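Table S2 (text version). Query chain:
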Amino acid sequence: MAKETVESLCQRAQTSISQGDNEEAMRLYRQALAVRPDHPDVHYGMATVCYLVGDLDQASQHFKEVTRLDPLRAGAYINLGAVYNRMERFDDAIPALRRGIQLDMNRAEGYYNLGLVYRKKQQLDMAIQAYREATRINPRMADAHYNIANIYFEKMQYNLAVAHYREALEIRPNWEKALRGMEQAQVALGQMQDTQHDAPATQTGPSSAVLAQATGPPQAPVDPERMVDANLHGELLRNMHRATIDSDNHGRQLLENLEKEIEPAIKELSSCLLYPDSSANELNHCIRKFEVALDHLRRLQSLLRVATEKVRVLGETLLKT
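Corresponding structure-token output:
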């Protein structure tokens, strides 16, 4: 009888919440708690109602009770972290949110709330990373793009701020805050570009590079009427063709490495670093995986440089003969 009664009371409470009658919902959940004080769903519902009516202290207590009764419920930890955010208990919010994300890494709201914490603690790069994870899971999360844009604006990286304000507006057109942020970022970006354009040239800029080239050995002019002779340049052309194919192959392998090795390794390592409740062995594994992928990338970059340099040298030789 107790189970059915609790379920019935919870269903009626949820209906009351949907109708905006939070007081009735709270009364029903209290009845349910009197019958089953150890029922995690009842505490979860009561925590939700307390949050809705602004009783954050009671909301946190009930969400904590859910985590005690049902330690694997990710949503309870994430909601607890969100409540701690509202209470400005940021040091308590971080472990709750990390635990929730560990239990379910596909909860965009967990990463979003973690971004809020890091933003409040002025750990801006960590905040951007958390918000990016939120948008990776839920690309339609306009608030995350907007918050990323605000951080980039604060860091004076106005081009990135504009890009993320634009992302937010594509999801939520005519959003006044995002429109205002976009306008301010575009003005700041224009002013920065004007300042750079008006700045005097220095000896370490492009002028000195041109001067260095001008003081080198004179270059023989290329005859525009000159034709490539297959008999004279056949072997050179074949070598150049092979070097071009090698360059193309190495370039494709490098792109494949970035997509299939570097990006997954970075995401895995990022997750371990952002939520350092992982074991030392797990973190070492992530670091090693990233280092292996990075070593492979460096080898591919070296091969690509050698191949493209060969193309350049052969091309210059062809022009001279």
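Notes on Table S2: Residues 201-226 have pLDDT under 50 and may be disordered. The two ends are 98 Å apart (CA to CA).
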